Every structure is written in structure tokens, then in C-alpha cells.
Amino acid sequence: MAGFEADVWVDFTTPAVAYENTRFALENGFAPVVGTTGFTSEEIAELKAFSREKDLGGLIAPNFALGAVLLMQFAAQAAKYFPNVEIIELHHDKKKDAPSGTAIKTAELMAEVRESIQQDATDEEELLAGARGADFDGMRIHSVRLPGLVAHQEVIFGNQGEGLTLRHDSYDRSSFMTGVNLGIKEVVKCHELVYGLEHLL
């Protein structure tokens, strides 16, 4: 990259190379804007620390659709009052990771404010392994992969005598561009990497 000048590095690649790409960007003075999912919490922590050393902004966003970012925020608000919750994320059949980064980020945000409870019946038995989905702090996350889908998520809350469902749909990848443009404009003003577009809104 010698002789190449840029302020921002945009990465939408694969989980196998995203960490190294992001570190490379920071090492070379580029503020990374990353839409690839699959980072571990340890990798994100390392990249945040490295970005502070370099005094460079950066962004790793599980989702760049503004509606999806708002859905995550709404879900965190609702989880304070509705601790019984399940997430269903639906994506195209070429997606490489499951559950999606958006579903994991949603669960993380809810776990910060939600009373930690185990929702299932104490004597529940899965007749098919995995039928109840992945367990995240007592919440269940279900992944659907089908052709024709792009990116969709439902967060379903249950309470005594009532329910609440939040849903976001990306029907086309163009839905991500508003968030990508926002990230590119804002990340150069930051002095460390952040995880989640909500930090730049």
C-alpha cells in the first residue's frame, strides 16, 4: 500500500479475513468501516485497544441498515420490561455465519438491561437437537437460511396476557448504503474503533 493515500478503509469481505484486514487498515493509518460479521469479542477488544494506540477511529457494524440499528435499540428498551424474548433472524442461503451478527448484537444489548432468566420449561426435552435454537443468556436465537431472502429479523417478546413483536426487513442491499455513508463520514472524526453503528448516530 506504499504511496496509496486514503482516509477510510471499507471492508465487506468474509469472517476468515476480516480481522486481519481491519488490523492492516489500522496499522497503515486508515479508519476501517467494516460490515463483515463473525468477529469474536476478544478480537473486537484487541482492535479497539489498537485503534486507541493509533488514535484512529473505526467502525465494525453488524448491520448498516438504519432500521435494523433502531430495531436493536427498541429491543433493548423493551427487554427491561419483557425479559421473555426470542430472536428469529432470516437471511439468504449464502450467508456464512449463524446466528447473524445483528442477532448477536441485539442479544448483547438486551442482556445488558434484561433480567437474566431461563425461559424454557424446566422439564423441556428437545426431540430434535437444536430445535429450540441457540441459547444466549437464557434467550433463544433461531437462524433461517433460504433463497430469496436478504436480511430480516424478528424479536418476539412474551408477557402475561400480551406479546410484542419487533421486525425489520431489508429487501435489497441498497438498504445498507445510508449507514455505510454515515459510517464513512463520521469515523474520521473518532479516536477509537466502535462496535455498532448506534455509536455514530
Task: Explain what the structure shows.
With about 200 residues, this protein is of the alpha/beta class. The chain has two domains: about 10-60 and about 175-195, Rossmann fold (3-Layer(aba) Sandwich), CATH 3.40.50.720; about 65-170, 2-Layer Sandwich (Dihydrodipicolinate Reductase, domain 2), CATH 3.30.360. Helix content is about 30%, strand content about 25%. The chain is built from five helices and nine strands. The strands form two sheets. A five-stranded mixed β-sheet has the order 5-6-4-7-8, with helices on one face. Helix 3 (about 65-80) packs parallel to helix 4. The radius of gyration is 18 Å and the shape is elongated. The model has no long low-confidence stretch (mean pLDDT about 95).
Shape: elongated
Q: Pick out the low-confidence regions.
A: none
Overall structural domain count = 2
The termini sit apart by: 31 Å
Compact summary:
The chain has five helices and nine strands. The protein has 201 residues and is an alpha/beta fold. Belongs to the DapB family.
Keywords:
elongated; Rossmann fold; 201 residues; 5 helices; alpha/beta
What topology does this entry show?
Elements: E1 8-11, H1 15-27, E2 31-34, H2 41-54, E3 58-60, H3 66-79, E4 84-91, H4 101-113, E5 134-136, E6 139-145, E7 151-159, E8 162-170, H5 177-187, E9 193-195
Parallel strand pairs: 1-2, 2-3, 3-9, 4-6
Antiparallel strand pairs: 4-7, 5-6, 7-8
Helix pairs in contact: 1-2, 3-4
